[in-house]
Amino acid sequence: MQISNPQSVIPKPLPLPLHHKITALSKEVKPYNDDNLTKKQEITQMFDNIAPRYDLLNRVLSVGIDNIWRKNAINELQDIAPQTILDVATGTCDLALEAMRLNPKKIIGVDISSQMLVLGQQKIDKKGFQDIIKLKLGDSENLPFESNTFDAATVGFGVRNFENLEQGLSELHRVIRPGGKLVVLEFSKPSKFPVKQVYFSYFKYVLPNIGKLVSKDQSAYTYLPASVQAFPEGKQFIEKLKECGFKTAKCKEQTFGICSIYTAEKV
Ligand SMILES: C[S@@+](CC[C@H](N)C(=O)[O-])C[C@H]1O[C@@H](n2cnc3c(N)ncnc32)[C@H](O)[C@@H]1O
User: Which of 121, 196, 208, 256 could form a disulfide with 221 if both were Cys (CB 3.0 to 4.6 A apart)?
Assistant: First the structure.
């Protein structure tokens, strides 16, 4: 794992292809709103801060449902039985660990937060999966891999945090081999009564307070609902996947639309 000096290994973003528009929304919502820091720097700082409490908060705040969503996301890859998987924004590696069920030869997890990776590595070592799952500090928007390398790529609750969504999706498309598949798991907004009302009250009032108390980070769990609100979900995200090169893209809502699983194929 190469995580000793984060700044030295996070590569500079590649220039965007001309036909890709910059997503203003994903740039505007930042955890700390510090004018001197980019969204990427703030996101790195935020996940480094909350890393020790991240898993606990996930389980508590989602009442354990997040693990069911990860299982469903990995099920989407069963049909192609991938041998090589890239898990971008791998964090503490829950999605990468879930992907072990598919019996791959290799899983590479990439993240910009060194502290999330340290905890992920501990979980990998505990399960004895260190020969299969390798971790790398790196940026989704400039992936340190050759084109057409992976059978599949996954991103769990990560795309919402990308500074430049199109750049990140284009990079994912580049490193997946033709015939390979991308699976993205991301929060969405339920639209039906009464789940919509209950969910918004929970997200606005309950989650930020529990998050603040447990994580000791004043902003991280206020940023979460704000970033979900701003994220181009559903049909809009499917369009983004297609703009970034994926030929087919689909969305499956989970648990009344609280979360969505997107699958996309590279032809
Ligand atoms: C909410 S966590 C999700 C972790 C894990 N995938 C899961 O399912 O629990 C989001 C992760 O995305 C990472 N991240 C955000 N922007 C990134 C980027 N540009 N490149 C790589 N990782 C990024 C963060 O550091 C964080 O670990």
Answer: 208
Q: Kindly tell me the sign of the dihedral angle through the C-alpha atoms of 30, 55, 156, 1.
A: positive
* Residue 2: band (very low, low, confident or very high) from pLDDT cuts 50, 70, 90: very low
Q: Give the confidence band of 204 by pLDDT, cuts at 50, 70, 90.
A: confident
Per-residue pLDDT tens over the stretch 154-181:
999 999 999 999 999 999 999 999 999 9
- The contacts of residue 23 (CB under 8 Å, 6+ apart) are 164, 165, 166, 232, 240
202 DSSP 8-state letter: I
At 68 the pLDDT is 97
The verdict on the CB of residue 49 being under 6 Å from ligand 1 is: no
Query: pLDDT category, 62, cuts 50, 70, 90?
Result: confident
Ligand 1 centroid–CA 37 distance in Å is 18
Is 114 close to ligand 1, i.e. is its CB under 6 Å away?
A: no
Strands (E), the chain: 84-88, 106-111, 133-137, 150-156, 176-187, 248-254, 259-265
Tell me, in angstroms, the distance from the centre of ligand 1 to residue 44's CA: 9
- Which residue is closest in CA terms to ligand 1's atom 27? 91
Ordered by where they begin, the domains of the chain are 38-188+232-265 (3.40.50.150)
CA of 15 to the centre of ligand 1 (A): 22
- Pair of tokens at residue 105: 């030869």
**DSSP string across 127-180:** HT-TTTEEEEE--GGG-SS-TT-EEEEEEES-GGG-SSHHHHHHHHHHHEEEEE
> Which residues 6+ apart lie within 8 Å of 241 measured at CB?
169, 182, 249, 262, 264
